[in-house]
Amino acid sequence: MEFGFSEEQKMMRQMVRSFAEKAVKPRAAEMDETDEFPKEIFKQAGDLGLLAVNFPEEYGGAGADSVSSVLASIELGRVSATVANICSSIKHHLFCMYHYGTKEQKETYMPAMARGEIIGSFALTESGAGSDATGIKTQARLDEDSYVLNGSKTFITLGPLADFTIVFAVTDASKKSKGISAFIVEKGTPGFRVGKKEKKMGQRGNPVSELLFTDCRIPKSNMLGAEGQGIKIALHSLDSGRIEVAGLAIGLIQAALEDSVAYAESRVQFGQKISQFQLIQAFIAQMAADLDAASLLTYRAAYLKDSGKPFTRESSIAKWFATEAAMKHTTNAIQIHGGYGYCKDYAVERYFRDAKLTQIYEGTNQIQQIVIAREVLKGGLQWS
Ligand SMILES: Cc1cc2nc3c(=O)[nH]c(=O)nc-3n(C[C@H](O)[C@H](O)[C@H](O)COP(=O)(O)OP(=O)(O)OC[C@H]3O[C@@H](n4cnc5c(N)ncnc54)[C@H](O)[C@@H]3O)c2cc1C
Q1: Active-site positions?
Q2: Which end of the chain, N or C, is less packed with Cβ atoms under 10 Å?
Q3: Taking every annotated instance into account, which residue ranges of this chain make up the domain Acyl-CoA oxidase/dehydrogenase middle (predicted)?
């Protein structure tokens, strides 16, 4: 077993650290305050290959591996969960397109998406179907050479900005989960419109909205993957997306730790630095240990993905562990900062709000436990 990054992986981490520190960190609080999408940063991220780190150059990607992609998510998450999530969301859409798109679909969407020239979205969740994705009601009815979509989606990341969306809809209700298919619907298609934009607690600046479909007619050729493959596409891409969410959460733990150490070393109470109090040291020690544990679990999941091995169980473990740790330690970072940590002058207040979302999206942490238990019960105790 080797512990260490390749030269390419180290270079990726260094490059993203530099971009994050210079271009993203100075804007992070403003993005949170204004809730405005960071257009310039998005463009720069596209130029640097950060929207498509682990996709082939042939389709506009940086041609790096998933471990490098996680390192990029950690570095971005350390300064701005918003920017980290925007980049991870684009990678999620690219993943669907790369694994299930036709050659023509890949050529049409992937290079432009990788460069940040067009934006996608992934529309699975509905008001009545969140954790139970197979319960979606949006329908796609075949009518000669078109599909006609009716229904609505909720909480769709980048929904208000997206040039196209990957929509999951029922094509044959009698086949239950095998009767759901995926479609590409472009902005401007009659019958497709953006609904209510949500006012979020955290990860602000990355817009989330409803998407509404009323007799929305799309060509048959806009199906992504085969008919009935929708849930497979969704679950496969979520397995991959969970590794990215874990990376973002690790970035938040690292930021919480760095800020906590700096504050504890500067704040004096009872005539000494609070870093000298053992109860404060306990917070720091727990942060450091969980940072390591979350990182190792997440690198393992990314490594398995790069090796072409199954990684469902490992990505769920990484996502669950890292995001629970992020919530715990961003909370404790506020505790270390005392009353100042509860106010916006200190970034830990933002980390705390940003961390909460990581326990919910890409499958709640209750759903991660269901996935892990299911994999273990079918004999997946070992990884290799
Ligand atoms: C900011 C944001 C961005 C999002 N982006 C997207 C996106 O881009 N695309 C998209 O399709 N979706 C997106 N989502 C939706 C997200 O994936 C869902 O919110 C999530 O899957 C949970 O669904 P729900 O909110 O309907 O909660 P529910 O499914 O209603 O869950 C409510 C509670 O019940 C628990 N629960 C549910 N089932 C079980 C069970 N079997 N056992 C134990 N507990 C259970 C859940 O863990 C949760 O605690 C986003 C959500 C948010 C908030």
Answers
A1: 362
A2: N
A3: 121-216
C-beta of 140 in contact with ligand 1 (< 6 A): no
Ligand 1 in reach of 91 Cβ (< 6 A): no
- Tally Cβ neighbours within 10 Å of residue 220: 13
State the burial class of residue 26 (Cβ atoms within 10 Å of its Cβ: 0-12, 13-18, 19+).
Answer: exposed
Residue 131 beta carbon below 6 angstroms from any ligand 1 atom: yes
**Domains plus CATH for the chain?**
7-114 (1.10.540.10), 122-228 (2.40.110.10), 231-377 (1.20.140.10)
- Residue 15 confidence (pLDDT) above 80: yes
Least Cα distance to 177 among 121, 104, 239, 229 occurs for 229
pLDDT at position 2 is: 83
Q: Is the pLDDT of residue 33 over 70?
A: yes
Comparing CA positions, the residue from 96, 83, 99, 2 lying closest to residue 48 is 83
CA distance 113 to 111: 5
